[in-house]
Amino acid sequence: MKRLSLTSQIMLGMVGGILIGLLFGPQIAGIKILGDIFLRLIQMTVVLLIFGAVIEAIAGLESQALGKLGLKTALWFLITTVIAAVIGLVMGQVFRPGAGITLATVQHQAATVKTPPDLTTTILNFFPQNIFAALSAGNVIQVIVFAILFGIVLNRANQDHEFDNVLLLIRQINQLATKLVMFIMRLAPVGIGALMVGVVANSGAAALLPLLKFLIVYGFSTVLFLAVLFLLISWYAKVPLGGLLHGFSRIMLVALTTTSSAVSLPIEMQDAHERLGVSHRINQLVLPLGMALNSNGLAMYLALVCAMVTQLYNIQLSLGLMVQIVSLAVLACLGTVVVPGGGLVALAIIIPTLGLPTESIALLAGIDWFSGMFRTVANVVGDTTTAIAIASDEDELNRQPYLLASPRRWRKHSASSK
């Protein structure tokens, strides 16, 4: 008999938790402690995981990748990720998927939420005074900033392979940290089921209403983001929009159905070269790097989740908190690793860092597979459009596939204009 996938087990755990919470009510709410233990186990690993993953990703690059081409790639990654995070935050504020829903834990949790600092303090707090204090406190932003700088220095110092042992040690620690997360994720069906029992037992069916609204808003936000990217790249790289959409059709289908950027990568690299005209050199640098460091869909997801959670718990979104949300959504993508439940791990990073109620993670965990469909599509499209833009800048973009895929009248117009 075929074993159920982790995603299927998590969904069963969520459904079972909802049913138990509805049937037995507050008298069974104490089972939530199992979910709290699960969340703590996830949270205890994420700082180490991010710290090592960012250092390894940057320090392991070829030196030429940290030069002009690397800076250009990083700039495009940053632009598209910020656009995605801003769209997620704005759509959350416009459609307000968490508004008008009262949960039983609102009053207790709202009192514990940290007062966000002003904008100047927010920016200053990106930079650590003491990395050990940042690691101890779980300050993810400061840890990532230090890891980026350390990774750059290690990359430059290791040109003659003097520090290969340091890089090897970091890689081995990352492998062990990843295995630890994967081990803990085996407990996810029970942990998430217990969290759902606690939430539903205290709040009833009202706790389920934000989920459907969230998926609808997230789906619409993803479509909007893709439209912005396609129009931007069509204009920037001077390629026909019809040919661009045709070239992306298989990439998006594979991403949607597999919900995995890693699984989509071979098709993404093949179609980027054959159907979208990106050279092998750009292809081999940008797309694997994008899978490790660039997660547009995740940034949008995290920003939208934070907007919804502030509405669920009646927390006012100040300018400082909005900057924190967008910044953390962007920076959290740098620590993304290919492990089961990556969206859940990201939530375990950003929700506590912002001082938001951790109970909200349970609400989103049960629909992580559906959210992952939209996340993966946005991720792979963001990576591939970046590759097209850079190939265009470097005169390494073959536009012939676009013309062949475009309507006949476009091809005639293009031929007559030459």
UniProtKB/TrEMBL annotation:
Any GO CC annotation of this UniProt entry: plasma membrane
Localization per record: Cell membrane
GO MF, one annotated term: symporter activity
Entry keyword annotation includes Nucleotide-binding: no
Listed InterPro entries: Na-dicarboxylate_symporter, Na:dicarbo_symporter_sf
UniProt keyword list: Cell membrane, Membrane, Transmembrane, Transmembrane helix, Transport
Pfam families given in the database record: SDF (PF00375)
Keyword RNA-binding: no
Transmembrane annotation, as ranges: 12-31, 37-61, 73-95, 131-154, 187-209, 215-236, 248-267, 287-310, 317-338, 344-365
Membrane protein topology class: Multi-pass membrane protein
Protein name from the UniProt record: Sodium:dicarboxylate symporter
Organism: Levilactobacillus spicheri
